Amino acid sequence: MSTDNNDFDGQRRAFLQVAGAVTVVAPGVTLIAAQASARPAGEPASAANRWGMLIDSTKCSPDCKACVTACKQEMGLVGHDRPRTDAQYIRKLEVSDPSTGMRHSLPVMCQHCAKPACVDVCPTGASMKRADGIVLVDRHICIGCRYCMMACPYKARSFTHEDQTDQKPYLPRGKGTVEACTMCVHRIDAGRQPACVEACQSSGGGAMLFGDLSDPSSEIAKRVSTETTTRIRGELGLDPGVRYQGI
Amino acid sequence: MRKLVYQELTPMTPGWLAVVGGLAVVILAAAASVVYMEHEGHWVTGMTNQVVWGMPHVFAVFLIVAASGALNVASIGSVFGREPYQPLGRLSGLLAIALLAGGLAVLVLDLGRPDRLAVAMTHFNFKSIFAWNVILYSGFFGIVALYLWTMMDWTKKAFYKPAAIAAFVWRLVLTTGTGSIFGFLIARDAYGSAVMAPMFIAMSFAFGLAVFNLVVMALYAGSGRPIGDDLVLRLRKLLGLFVAANLYFVAVQHLTALYWAGHAGVEAFILRDGGIYTLLFWGGQVGLGGVVPLLLAFAAKPQCRNAFRMASALVILGGLAQVYVIIIGGQAYPLQLFPGMEISSSFADGQVHSYVPSLPEIALGLGGVALALLITLVGASFLRFLPESLGEPSAPAEAEGHGAPVGVHQPAE
Lengths: 247, 413
Prior knowledge:
Structural class of chain A: alpha+beta
Largest interface: A-B, 57 and 50 residues
Number of helices of chain A: 7
Structural class of chain B: mainly alpha
Strand content of chain B: under 5%
Helix content of chain B: 55-70%
CATH class of chain A: Alpha Beta
Radius of gyration of chain B: 22 Å
Oligomer: heterodimer
Shape of chain B: globular
Number of helices of chain B: 13
CATH architecture of chain A: 2-Layer Sandwich
CATH topology of the domain at 14-245 and 357-382 in chain B: Formate dehydrogenase/DMSO reductase fold
Strand content of chain A: 15-25%
Helix content of chain A: 25-40%
CATH class of the domain at 14-245 and 357-382 in chain B: Mainly Alpha
Largest sheet of chain B: none
Order of helices and strands of chain B: HHHHHHHHHHHHEH
Distance between the termini of chain A: 42 Å
CATH architecture of the domain at 14-245 and 357-382 in chain B: Up-down Bundle
Shape of chain A: globular
């Protein structure tokens, strides 16, 4: 197994080197780089990765909902015109400082914490963190107690309040269970980027960057090591995998 | 001193059938509510993605907390050797089991997937206080059942004291676990405090004894059995003591939070600006559920049984208000993603969340209460839980601390 992992890591690094080589980086041009290679079926997620995001709120317009729209399409989240119970994996937050009038707009989703409160409180272990840092809900053993929703400081989770139809094959949803952003784990495992990040880069402000925080050669790792970034509610010590700039 | 004789209640009388029938109707209404909510999904309830725990949790937590408190009378009699309480030890144990069953039934039937109860019993994440509670609640049934056995089977007398101590310790741990459901939540400003655990223990003392008092009075009035004034006065003063303890921990909780500038917002919400939650806190929890019972307990005439009943009823209503403020009020206050900033979103960020309990939720909660009362009534009707007499109403009080007229604990078997 370890040999396989090493082979896989080697392939990934080779891929990233090629990807990096062919990526054109110039001032004012959004960096669009594939950050991951596909993970072979049957291969477990590796603790060598820590998938994360960097979101620059200075590039995020209040009017832009590209990430939200892309998420709904990707995950098949159909609203029932019931805002209080309809699921939202990602939402745009408008933040203003009442003393200065300074305003920010930024997307907030599951922060994929390294020490997730939702995983700690889940009685059955349905809330879980993959080795690569992605926090998920195993809907086979979620009993729908919603304790994770009480525990999440980011209000990132939704309860499935009604029967579901036309679900995406990669996102089985079940009435009576809890759900949240999966960081598009199905895409990541296929070597692609999360839908929100892709949409932000193609039709949004290019505010979102996805990548492997544990890979020093990744763009996200380089930026978080050289630029000031912030974690929402960082004082709670949950070590979110999503970092922000400009807030 | 008279020999203590335990006797079953007489079942199948018109009054008995009416009470059982009434409770059965409430339980059936709860069952219908569960079917409706689970079939349609939780969107038909008042609960949302903002207020995820609602009225069922208020009833469930109240009943679970009251369950451990209902065991107090037995513990005071057997662990601390207070003889006047010993005749009621059996009923105390029965009521504790019944209240816990009612509370857990409500909790389980509100789950998104109640059909997965077996999953909860077989998959344990031991870092979760909920998982601990699954074990603590299950163990409570077993330990109290054993405790009852030692009370009711004279041949097991040797195990009476150890069982009593085990049950007492277990109930303290259990209520610590229930309080820690909220005490361990760091995300929400209203929770995340170690004082939640002892506060819940004080709450359990008060709520459990209040329920116990009303059940005893109802069962003895309904069956025409006498209760001595001395015992009533003891229970009334004990209730006053527990109410005072609860108020103390409530004061400590809020004073601690008020001293912390970061929690000024949630404290202002609960204590001053929270509308229904502020009203329930001051009017329900502190006023009707705290100060008034305290006055009734210590200032009313010693023989006034209405003061006893009224104090107990108010503690129950105040207790429900207290749990409502903790659970619903704590969620209604918005999460502080950016403390000190104003936030808004399509997901109701930055807003005080509204919650209106739906009828099925209330029916489910009341069903838990009815289930607890039905278990108690049926149990006392077919097993010897109740002494034939708890003293004469007109009997003068004996010397303080040396026992009621009922005499020493001596099981009839």
